[in-house]
Amino acid sequence: MSADEPSVFLRRAGTGTLADSSVVMWSVAEGARGRRWRWTLASAAGLRHAGLIELDAEGRFARLELETGEGMLTLHPDPDRQFVHGNIVRPRGVDPVEVAWSDDDGLAIERDPFGSAVAGRRGSGWVVGPDLQLRREDGEDTRALELDERGVPRLDDAREWPLEI
Question: How many C-beta atoms surround the C-beta of residue 45 within 10 A?
């Protein structure tokens, strides 16, 4: 590919609002190994959280990093994808995390329909609470935003731009 040719991979940044008036700023960089999403979620009270979600080339969950006032959560599947594990770093120390996982599971972030959408939450699976703890929820999930044809969540007042390489 020459420098004049557009990338076949999705490389965009944008902003928009959620139904609760929170503002999302995001970027996505796609490559041969998958997609890497970065985003922040802020309200009038300030920054709620910042995150990173990676999806592998097949679109499966590969990594979550989520930072809040409560701490920093890192989560990723084992090579055999039977468990996800990581840790929560808090002011008082580190809490290890490990839960059973299957490729049928999804991941949602409470009070974050953008992060839930890019993480692939569509039904049963795990929810990250405001305290960064994981809890299991089964059944239909309506928290995630709808995705456009590129897999980008639909936001109100959306604007976006190309990421320059």
Answer: 7
DSSP state of 145: P
Q: Is the pTM of this model over 0.85?
A: yes
Torsion region of 33: left, alpha or beta (phi above 0 gives left; psi -120 to 50 gives alpha): alpha
User: Domain coordinates of the chain in residue numbers?
Assistant: 11-149
In a 10 Å sphere around its CB, with 0-12 CB exposed, 13-18 middle and 19+ buried, how is residue 122 labelled?
middle
CA dihedral 104, 40, 25, 141 (to 10 degrees): 30
* pLDDT at residue 105, as a whole number: 87
Whole-angstrom distance, CA of residue 42 vs CA of residue 106:
24
102-145 pLDDT, tens digit per residue, is 888 889 999 999 999 999 766 678 999 999 999 998 866 666 89
